[in-house]
């Protein structure tokens, strides 16, 4: 399945799918996760994993 | 009343800001020209101080005071023009449907700083005016304007609110 086809089926833009893929997303909606798991026939744990590292500072990515 | 579009509060505010921008630009041009003209050309200071009786030396000093006053007025108008310019840019982000743009935080802080600077430079100017032309100050009065400082406080609080708004906007953008 291509990225374009997956984006269409899940109901997100290719740009947002790319943000998810590159790990730049700050959060994922349950509805998006549900749609992704449904379309890819997988579990949430197959899509997200925890990597140990310093805690995320919410002020870090301010684009002022 | 609608927030955006024709007949909304924002459309009236936009008209007010546009009119203020044009009026202040014209005012700045006129006052600066008059101030420079007062410095360069000779004129009878009795045009301004009608009841005064000037000697030759007094007239020259009165001309300098008038020119200084006009140029300080031009500086003040320039400051207000900066504020109106920033407000118009903030407004354009609102009409574009993105009021919590991160640039608005900086714009609000600039407005706060300009308001504070305009108030701060008023004090030495008043002191100089009392020294040079006490008859002018007796009419306008001398004192600290608490309303301005309160406005400065309000603007800085709003800037912080917008900073948080910009952070939430960024989070919403990166929530897929």
Structure commentary:
- The complex is a heterodimer of chains A (64) and B (176).
- Chain A contains 4 helices and no strands.
- Chain A is globular, with a radius of gyration of 13 Å.
- In chain A, 48% of the residues lie in helices and 0% in strands.
- Chain B has 176 residues and is mainly α.
- Chain B is built from 5 helices and no strands.
- The A-B interface holds A 12, 16-17, 19-20, 24-29, 32, 58-59, 61-64 and B 102, 105-106, 163, 166-167, 170-171, 174-176.
Percent helix of chain B, as a range, is over 70%
The main pleated sheet of chain B reads as: none
Q: State the largest interface.
A: A-B, 18 and 11 residues
The percent of residues in helical segments of chain A reads: 40-55%
State the main characteristics:
heterodimer; A: 64 residues; mainly alpha; 4 helices; globular; B: mainly alpha; 78% helix; elongated
What's the structural blueprint in terms of helices and strands?
The complex is a heterodimer of chains A (64) and B (176).
Chain A: H1 3-10, H2 14-21, H3 30-40, H4 44-47
Chain B: H1 9-40, H2 56-95, H3 102-132, H4 134-140, H5 146-173
Helix pairs in contact in B: 1-2, 2-3, 3-4, 3-5
Short characterization:
The complex is a heterodimer of chains A (64) and B (176). By secondary structure, chain A is mainly alpha-helical.
